[in-house]
């Protein structure tokens, strides 16, 4: 097969996987997909091997698999298929990896238990690589598709059901992290640095940072993201080139920073906005925050709490997650 034709076939197959809607090719709950890891903890320059397994398969012809990992701890070295067919080079983006494979021609799908592919990571730093299987889109030989979701959940979301879907979705995608393997601490305050870092990573913002705030040190885990936000004008500090990174962010400042990030990412245009008179506490909103908040209200990103914005309250981790989720949907 000529190279040009090969590329066309592969693009077509991937598009087909993405376009197919879940059908009846697999009995939901029968087939399962799992990851086997040589270790949970990574070490600098050490290999960490991952095996992608298919269990109780009933005619697997093609698949698209989403895996997340901590890009600060490990990086992809290589991946390869263990099945005969065409395997796309993994697509990696900020801790998210997509694997895609298909058989070609009139061939039977895979049956039973089998290894689908292997992935080799290289350690960058000491720590938990947090390699997670998020979802699998599987096609049978008739191109009927089924989607399997392995959504991450936490044990402490009681009382925060209004944010549970957003928390689980973004955690599964590796955009946010829990405070432990089983807890998210949704009611805890979120700091100015942590929310800014979340925005930068979630929106894939980048810039050549040529400086940082005086109270953000190179050893801080948020140094890179805050530097990018400063360069782009998203983070403007509190005066005297200070950022107060570990101070809890207020709800109105969270919204102002989010609106700036949306504009930088090209997801929001300067346009006429409605006022905030529909909220009973609109008079509490600082002057600098009125237009940004009105923009987010118009976009449906801010919906208020019992007709209140509560601009001066500190933002909670659950609230920040919902904001990030809605930004990504726009």
Please describe what this structure looks like.
With 330 residues, the protein is an alpha+beta fold. It is built from seven helices and twelve strands. The chain has helices at residues 3-19, 161-172, 192-202, 223-232, 251-264, 287-298, 317-329, and strands spanning 32-37, 41-42, 47-60, 62-68, 74-81, 86-87, 91-93, 96-102, 110-123, 127-128, 132-139, 145-149. Strands 4, 6, 7, 8, 11 and 12 form a six-stranded antiparallel β-sheet that branches. A hairpin with a 2-residue loop joins strand 7 (91-93) and strand 8 (96-102). Mean pLDDT is 87; it is low at 1-10 and 21-29.
**Strand content range:** 15-25%
Helical amount among residues, as a percent range?
Answer: 25-40%
Order of helices and strands: HEEEEEEEEEEEEHHHHHH
Radius of gyration: 22 Å
Q: What is the averaged pLDDT score?
A: 87
Helix/strand structural class: alpha+beta
Q: State the shape.
A: globular
Give start-end ranges of low-pLDDT stretches.
1-10, 21-29
Number of strands: 12
Q: Largest sheet at a glance?
A: 6 strands, antiparallel
Helical run tally: 7
What is the CA–CA distance across the termini?
41 Å
């Amino acid at each position: 097969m000529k190279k040009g034709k090969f590329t066309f076939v592969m693009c077509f197959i991937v598009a087909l996987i993405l376009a197919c809607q879940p059908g009846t090719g697999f009995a939901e709950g029968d087939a399962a997909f799992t990851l086997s890891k040589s270790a949970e903890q990574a070490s600098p320059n050490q290999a960490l091997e991952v095996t992608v397994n298919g269990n109780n398969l009933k005619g697997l012809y093609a698949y698209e698999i989403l895996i997340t990992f901590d890009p600060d701890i490990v990086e992809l070295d290589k991946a390869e298929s263990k099945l005969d067919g065409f395997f796309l080079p993994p697509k990696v983006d900020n801790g998210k990896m997509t694997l895609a494979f298909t058989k070609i021609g009139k061939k039977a799908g895979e049956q039973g238990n089998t290894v689908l592919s292997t992935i080799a990571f290289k350690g960058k730093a000491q720590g938990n690589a947090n390699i997670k299987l998020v979802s699998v889109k599987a096609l049978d030989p008739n191109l009927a598709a089924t989607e399997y979701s392995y959504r991450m959940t936490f044990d402490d979301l009681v009382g925060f059901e209004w944010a549970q879907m957003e928390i689980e979705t973004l955690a599964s995608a590796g955009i946010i992290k829990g405070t432990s393997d089983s807890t998210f601490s949704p009611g805890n305050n979120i700091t100015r640095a942590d929310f800014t870092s979340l925005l930068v990573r979630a929106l894939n913002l980048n810039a050549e940072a040529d400086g940082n705030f005086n109270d953000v040190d190179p050893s801080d885990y948020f140094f890179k993201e805050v530097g990018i936000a400063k360069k782009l004008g998203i983070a403007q500090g509190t005066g005297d080139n200070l950022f107060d990174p570990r101070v809890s962010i207020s709800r109105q400042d969270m919204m102002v920073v989010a609106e700036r990030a949306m504009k930088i990412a090209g997801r929001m245009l300067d346009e006429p906005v409605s006022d905030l008179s529909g909220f009973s506490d609109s008079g509490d909103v600082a002057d600098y925050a009125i237009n940004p908040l009105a923009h987010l209200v118009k976009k449906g990103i801010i919906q208020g709490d019992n007709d209140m914005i509560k601009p001066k309250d500190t933002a909670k981790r659950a609230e920040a997650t919902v904001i990030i989720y809605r930004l990504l949907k726009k």
